[in-house]
Design brief:
Number of strands: 6
Helix content: 25-40%
CATH superfamily: 7,8-Dihydro-6-hydroxymethylpterin-pyrophosphokinase HPPK
Oligomer: single chain
EC number: 2.7.6.3
CATH architecture: 2-Layer Sandwich
Structural class: alpha+beta
Order of helices and strands: EHEEEHEHHHHHE
Radius of gyration: 15 Å
Distance between the termini: 41 Å
Organism: Pelagimonas phthalicica
Family: Belongs to the HPPK family.
Shape: globular
Number of helices: 7
Function: Catalyzes the transfer of pyrophosphate from adenosine triphosphate (ATP) to 6-hydroxymethyl-7,8-dihydropterin, an enzymatic step in folate biosynthesis pathway.
Number of domains: 1
Protein name: 2-amino-4-hydroxy-6-hydroxymethyldihydropteridine pyrophosphokinase
Strand content: 15-25%
Length: about 190
């Protein structure tokens, strides 16, 4: 069954051949040439590395993508594309040649509300060390991530978080203004 997925794209290291911006642009071309159909793409943004000071700034964007397959199959596909761009998963929250995060699959809550709540409420020190061994949707910290919500507002401002019952626009507006001000469209940098 074809479903629309929301994904976040990021790069702060680029590849041997491409800057971070070119890496994201080329990634979108690779996604379009495969089993995905890109429906909408946000503007590109420069965002501070997270956690702050841990590396070069990121280029971030979001996309709405149609894919004929399950969320797990789509996540595997995203990981394959990351690998094509040299992504190595060694250290949690390390710099990345390419980062593709599955943010949401419609209004699905996976694998359960209980598991979602567990990961959403995980203390920061544990977030830095632990990763779930299964797909959690929507992304459990979507509501905290300015670098996702600002670009997501470009393509899905009215998407409603199935647990928090707030739209992307409402979630973004609830973030501190100073955090939103740090997310700059590429053409203004």
């Amino acid at each position: 069954m074809v479903q629309e997925y929301l994904i976040a794209l990021g790069s702060n290291l680029g590849t041997a051949d491409y800057t971070s911006l070119k890496t994201i642009q080329n990634c979108l071309r690779v996604l379009m040439s495969g089993s995905c159909k890109i429906r909408r793409v946000s503007r590109f943004f420069v965002t501070p590395c997270f956690p702050k000071g841990a590396g070069p700034d990121y280029i971030n964007a979001c996309a709405a993508v149609s894919f004929d397959g399950s969320p797990d199959a789509f996540l595997r596909h995203l990981h394959q594309v990351e690998a094509e761009f040299g992504r190595v998963r060694e250290t949690r929250w390390a710099g990345r040649s390419l980062d593709l995060d599955l943010i949401a699959a419609g209004s699905d809550i996976l694998p359960s509300q209980e598991m979602f709540d567990q990961w959403r409420n995980l203390p920061l020190d544990r977030q830095m060390r632990e990763a779930p061994d299964q797909l959690i949707l929507p992304h459990p910290r979507l509501q905290d991530r300015t670098f996702v919500l600002v670009p997501l507002s470009d393509i899905a401002p009215n998407w409603c978080h199935p647990v928090l019952n707030q739209t992307v626009r409402e979630l973004c507006d609830a973030l501190p203004a100073e955090d939103r001000a740090e997310v700059l469209p590429v053409n203004t940098v």
